[in-house]
Design brief:
The complex is a heterodimer of chains A (114) and B (111). Chain A is mostly beta strands. Chain A has strands at residues 4-7, 10-13, 18-25, 31-37, 44-50, 53-57, 64-70, 73-79, 87-94, 104-105, 109-113. Chain A has no helices and eleven strands. In chain A, strand 5 (44-50) and strand 6 (53-57) form a beta hairpin. Chain A starts with a strand and ends with a strand. Helices cover 0% and strands 59% of the residues of chain B. In chain B, strands 2, 4, 5, 9, 10 and 11 form a six-stranded mixed sheet that branches. In chain B, strands 1-3-8-7-6 form a five-stranded antiparallel sheet, with no helix packed on it. The N and C termini of chain B lie far apart (41 Å). Chain B has strands spanning 4-7, 10-14, 19-25, 29-37, 43-49, 55-58, 61-66, 71-76, 85-93, 99-101, 105-110. Chain B has 111 residues and is mainly β.
């Protein structure tokens, strides 16, 4: 158990659905991240929040909408997704975004878009 | 653009043997990470390497960093079955929050 909890573990949704992924960290960290892990691509950074402010957005399509209401919680709101968005979505946290900070990952949400 | 390349992508080895996984990256970086991922599980941090010549060891794994060559290695000594997993290196550029991952090396250790 890394102290980063993601729900749900598995999600199947249609292209017209709206769903949200949730991440909660119990480590007192100040930075949180969303990563996408596809079968045929390296892990891709999607969003970074530091002290609840978004500091990085790697040109992610607008059908993915992050929300960070406080330093312990991070959401990824999904709407009108495409089948190619099927992947494992990993949340991570770190105590900061400075040098020598390592990431603590959650177990991920395996998303399937039909 | 920062690119991170690992090789090999797949590695099958016998127990008791030694082997090295390589991680090359394309631009200047101020830190390099190694992670392990077991099937169906999340990533676990193994090492953080911060400076040229840094070497860290834990158990049968040893990681090193050569910033001039832009190369990190993960050396496995006398492999055991429990080391079977996918190993990722990841690199962060100076003054940047973007951690770029390699494609991963899927290691299988056979009895």
């Amino acid at each position: 158990e890394t102290g980063v909890t993601q729900t749900p573990r598995h999600l199947v949704m249609g292209m017209t659905n709206k769903k949200s992924l949730k991440c909660e960290q119990h480590l007192g960290h100040n930075a949180m991240y969303w990563y996408k892990q596809s079968a045929k691509k390296p892990l891709e950074l999607m969003f970074v929040y530091s002290l609840e402010e978004r500091v990085e957005n790697n040109s992610v399509p607008s059908r993915f909408s992050p929300e960070c209401p406080n330093s312990s919680h991070l959401f990824l709101h999904l709407h009108t997704l495409q089948p190619e968005d099927s992947a494992l979505y990993l949340c991570a946290s770190s105590s900061g975004t400075a040098t020598n900070e390592k990431l603590f990952f959650g177990s991920g949400t395996q998303l399937s878009v039909l | 653009e920062l690119k991170v390349e690992q090789n090999p992508l797949f590695l099958s080895m016998q127990e008791g043997k030694n082997y090295t996984i390589y991680c090359n990256y394309s631009t200047t970086s101020d830190r390099l990470y190694w992670y392990r991922q077991d099937p169906g599980k999340s990533l676990e941090s193994l090492f953080v390497l911060l400076s040229n010549g840094a070497v860290k060891q834990e158990g049968r794994l040893m990681a090193s960093l050569d910033t001039k060559a832009r190369l990190s290695t993960l050396h496995i000594t006398a492999a055991v079955h429990d080391l079977s997993a996918t190993y990722f290196c990841a690199v962060v550029r100076y003054n940047n929050n973007d951690m770029r991952f390699g494609a991963g090396t899927r290691l299988t250790v056979k009895p």
